[in-house]
Amino acid sequence: TAVSPAAPSWEAAYERELRSFRDGGDAGEIWFGEESIVRLIRWMEKHKIPHDRPVLDIGTGNGVLLVELAKCGYTNLTGIDYSASAIQLSEQVKEKEGMSNIKFQVEDFLAPSAELSGFEICIDKGTFDAVSLNPEDAVGKRKQYVRSLCSVLKPGGFFLITSCNWTKEELLSEFREGFEILEELPTPKFCFGGRIGNSVTALVFQRK
Hints:
With 208 residues, the chain is an alpha/beta fold. The chain contains 7 helices and 9 strands.
Protein backbone atom coordinates (compact mmCIF):
# COMPACT_ATOMS: atom_id res chain seq x y z
CA THR A 1 0.00 0.00 0.00
CA ALA A 2 2.87 2.41 0.71
CA VAL A 3 5.67 1.09 -1.45
CA SER A 4 7.09 2.76 -4.53
CA PRO A 5 8.09 -0.05 -6.96
CA ALA A 6 4.75 -1.80 -6.41
CA ALA A 7 2.91 1.48 -6.92
CA PRO A 8 1.62 0.89 -10.48
CA SER A 9 -0.30 -2.26 -9.48
CA TRP A 10 -1.66 -0.63 -6.29
CA GLU A 11 -2.52 2.45 -8.30
CA ALA A 12 -4.49 0.37 -10.84
CA ALA A 13 -6.34 -1.46 -8.06
CA TYR A 14 -7.31 1.77 -6.31
CA GLU A 15 -8.30 3.41 -9.60
CA ARG A 16 -10.74 0.50 -10.11
CA GLU A 17 -12.08 0.90 -6.56
CA LEU A 18 -12.37 4.66 -7.09
CA ARG A 19 -14.48 4.09 -10.22
CA SER A 20 -16.72 1.55 -8.51
CA PHE A 21 -17.17 3.90 -5.53
CA ARG A 22 -18.20 6.73 -7.88
CA ASP A 23 -20.55 4.41 -9.73
CA GLY A 24 -22.16 2.57 -6.85
CA GLY A 25 -20.89 3.91 -3.53
CA ASP A 26 -18.91 0.76 -2.67
CA ALA A 27 -15.68 1.64 -0.84
CA GLY A 28 -14.03 -1.61 -1.99
CA GLU A 29 -12.09 -4.23 -0.15
CA ILE A 30 -11.40 -4.04 3.57
CA TRP A 31 -7.90 -5.34 4.12
CA PHE A 32 -8.10 -8.41 6.40
CA GLY A 33 -11.88 -8.07 6.70
CA GLU A 34 -14.05 -6.12 9.08
CA GLU A 35 -13.09 -8.13 12.15
CA SER A 36 -9.57 -6.66 11.89
CA ILE A 37 -11.03 -3.15 12.25
CA VAL A 38 -13.21 -4.22 15.18
CA ARG A 39 -10.16 -5.84 16.84
CA LEU A 40 -8.10 -2.62 16.63
CA ILE A 41 -10.90 -0.32 17.80
CA ARG A 42 -11.73 -2.68 20.68
CA TRP A 43 -8.09 -2.55 21.83
CA MET A 44 -8.08 1.26 21.76
CA GLU A 45 -11.34 1.45 23.70
CA LYS A 46 -10.27 -1.20 26.22
CA HIS A 47 -7.08 0.76 26.93
CA LYS A 48 -9.08 4.00 27.17
CA ILE A 49 -6.96 5.80 24.56
CA PRO A 50 -8.19 9.41 24.80
CA HIS A 51 -10.20 10.39 21.71
CA ASP A 52 -7.99 13.39 20.91
CA ARG A 53 -4.69 11.45 20.72
CA PRO A 54 -3.04 11.69 17.26
CA VAL A 55 -3.51 8.46 15.27
CA LEU A 56 -1.71 7.56 12.01
CA ASP A 57 -3.01 4.88 9.64
CA ILE A 58 0.00 3.72 7.57
CA GLY A 59 -1.15 2.67 4.10
CA THR A 60 -4.74 3.77 4.66
CA GLY A 61 -6.13 2.39 1.37
CA ASN A 62 -9.82 3.32 1.23
CA GLY A 63 -9.69 5.00 4.67
CA VAL A 64 -12.47 2.84 6.14
CA LEU A 65 -10.55 2.14 9.38
CA LEU A 66 -10.26 5.88 10.14
CA VAL A 67 -13.92 6.47 9.24
CA GLU A 68 -14.88 3.79 11.80
CA LEU A 69 -12.56 5.37 14.41
CA ALA A 70 -14.18 8.75 13.72
CA LYS A 71 -17.61 7.18 14.24
CA CYS A 72 -16.36 5.94 17.65
CA GLY A 73 -15.46 9.51 18.64
CA TYR A 74 -11.75 9.75 17.74
CA THR A 75 -10.95 13.24 16.48
CA ASN A 76 -7.25 13.43 15.56
CA LEU A 77 -6.89 11.04 12.62
CA THR A 78 -4.42 10.97 9.73
CA GLY A 79 -4.22 8.44 6.91
CA ILE A 80 -1.33 8.17 4.46
CA ASP A 81 -0.85 6.11 1.32
CA TYR A 82 1.69 6.02 -1.50
CA SER A 83 -1.16 5.71 -4.00
CA ALA A 84 -2.79 8.99 -5.04
CA SER A 85 -5.88 7.04 -6.17
CA ALA A 86 -6.18 5.48 -2.70
CA ILE A 87 -6.11 8.94 -1.12
CA GLN A 88 -8.72 10.19 -3.63
CA LEU A 89 -10.90 7.20 -2.76
CA SER A 90 -10.50 7.70 1.00
CA GLU A 91 -11.36 11.42 0.62
CA GLN A 92 -14.58 10.46 -1.17
CA VAL A 93 -15.46 7.81 1.44
CA LYS A 94 -14.82 10.42 4.18
CA GLU A 95 -17.05 12.95 2.39
CA LYS A 96 -19.86 10.43 1.92
CA GLU A 97 -19.73 9.56 5.64
CA GLY A 98 -19.54 13.24 6.62
CA MET A 99 -16.33 12.85 8.65
CA SER A 100 -14.46 16.15 8.49
CA ASN A 101 -11.93 15.38 11.25
CA ILE A 102 -9.80 12.95 9.19
CA LYS A 103 -6.76 14.14 7.25
CA PHE A 104 -5.60 12.09 4.25
CA GLN A 105 -2.33 12.71 2.42
CA VAL A 106 -0.16 11.07 -0.21
CA GLU A 107 3.07 9.95 1.51
CA ASP A 108 5.75 7.34 0.93
CA PHE A 109 6.22 5.97 4.45
CA LEU A 110 9.78 4.92 3.59
CA ALA A 111 10.60 8.60 2.99
CA PRO A 112 8.14 10.45 5.25
CA SER A 113 7.84 14.24 5.09
CA ALA A 114 9.09 16.27 8.06
CA GLU A 115 5.60 17.22 9.29
CA LEU A 116 4.66 13.56 9.70
CA SER A 117 5.56 13.26 13.39
CA GLY A 118 4.23 13.34 16.94
CA PHE A 119 1.77 10.44 16.63
CA GLU A 120 0.79 8.46 19.72
CA ILE A 121 -0.86 5.58 17.84
CA CYS A 122 0.34 4.10 14.54
CA ILE A 123 -1.70 1.39 12.83
CA ASP A 124 -0.57 -0.92 10.01
CA LYS A 125 -2.87 -3.41 8.31
CA GLY A 126 -0.81 -5.05 5.56
CA THR A 127 1.58 -2.23 4.62
CA PHE A 128 4.60 -3.81 6.30
CA ASP A 129 3.63 -7.01 4.44
CA ALA A 130 3.68 -5.07 1.15
CA VAL A 131 7.07 -3.53 1.99
CA SER A 132 8.38 -7.03 2.77
CA LEU A 133 7.29 -8.36 -0.63
CA ASN A 134 9.28 -5.71 -2.46
CA PRO A 135 11.65 -7.49 -4.86
CA GLU A 136 14.25 -4.71 -4.60
CA ASP A 137 16.18 -4.76 -1.31
CA ALA A 138 13.34 -6.01 0.90
CA VAL A 139 15.65 -6.21 3.95
CA GLY A 140 16.80 -2.61 3.54
CA LYS A 141 13.21 -1.43 3.05
CA ARG A 142 12.06 -3.24 6.22
CA LYS A 143 14.85 -1.53 8.18
CA GLN A 144 13.84 1.82 6.68
CA TYR A 145 10.22 1.13 7.68
CA VAL A 146 11.32 0.67 11.32
CA ARG A 147 13.37 3.90 11.13
CA SER A 148 10.37 5.76 9.69
CA LEU A 149 8.15 4.36 12.43
CA CYS A 150 10.58 5.59 15.09
CA SER A 151 10.54 9.06 13.52
CA VAL A 152 6.72 9.43 13.38
CA LEU A 153 5.75 7.66 16.65
CA LYS A 154 6.37 9.36 19.98
CA PRO A 155 8.34 7.48 22.68
CA GLY A 156 5.77 5.57 24.74
CA GLY A 157 3.39 5.51 21.76
CA PHE A 158 1.67 2.35 20.50
CA PHE A 159 2.12 0.52 17.19
CA LEU A 160 -0.67 -1.89 16.19
CA ILE A 161 0.33 -4.18 13.33
CA THR A 162 -1.76 -6.78 11.49
CA SER A 163 0.19 -9.13 9.20
CA CYS A 164 -0.49 -12.23 7.15
CA ASN A 165 3.17 -12.72 6.13
CA TRP A 166 4.93 -12.76 9.47
CA THR A 167 4.66 -14.82 12.65
CA LYS A 168 4.74 -13.23 16.09
CA GLU A 169 8.38 -14.33 16.57
CA GLU A 170 9.44 -12.85 13.22
CA LEU A 171 7.72 -9.53 13.97
CA LEU A 172 9.38 -9.41 17.40
CA SER A 173 12.72 -9.76 15.64
CA GLU A 174 11.90 -7.13 12.97
CA PHE A 175 10.84 -4.52 15.55
CA ARG A 176 13.28 -5.41 18.33
CA GLU A 177 15.17 -2.12 17.97
CA GLY A 178 13.18 0.63 19.62
CA PHE A 179 10.03 -1.35 20.44
CA GLU A 180 8.77 -3.79 23.03
CA ILE A 181 5.84 -6.14 22.68
CA LEU A 182 2.81 -5.32 24.82
CA GLU A 183 0.35 -7.99 23.71
CA GLU A 184 -0.84 -10.26 20.96
CA LEU A 185 -4.42 -9.71 19.82
CA PRO A 186 -6.59 -12.78 19.18
CA THR A 187 -7.05 -13.57 15.49
CA PRO A 188 -9.08 -16.35 13.81
CA LYS A 189 -7.45 -19.80 13.98
CA PHE A 190 -7.36 -22.36 11.19
CA CYS A 191 -6.61 -26.07 11.13
CA PHE A 192 -4.49 -27.62 8.38
CA GLY A 193 -3.19 -31.18 8.37
CA GLY A 194 -3.99 -31.57 12.06
CA ARG A 195 -2.02 -28.47 13.07
CA ILE A 196 -3.70 -25.36 14.41
CA GLY A 197 -2.30 -21.99 13.40
CA ASN A 198 -3.16 -18.37 12.73
CA SER A 199 -3.23 -17.04 9.19
CA VAL A 200 -3.09 -13.50 10.58
CA THR A 201 -0.87 -12.10 13.34
CA ALA A 202 -1.91 -8.95 15.23
CA LEU A 203 0.49 -7.43 17.75
CA VAL A 204 0.70 -4.27 19.84
CA PHE A 205 4.16 -2.77 20.39
CA GLN A 206 5.15 0.18 22.53
CA ARG A 207 7.92 2.51 21.42
CA LYS A 208 10.73 2.63 23.99
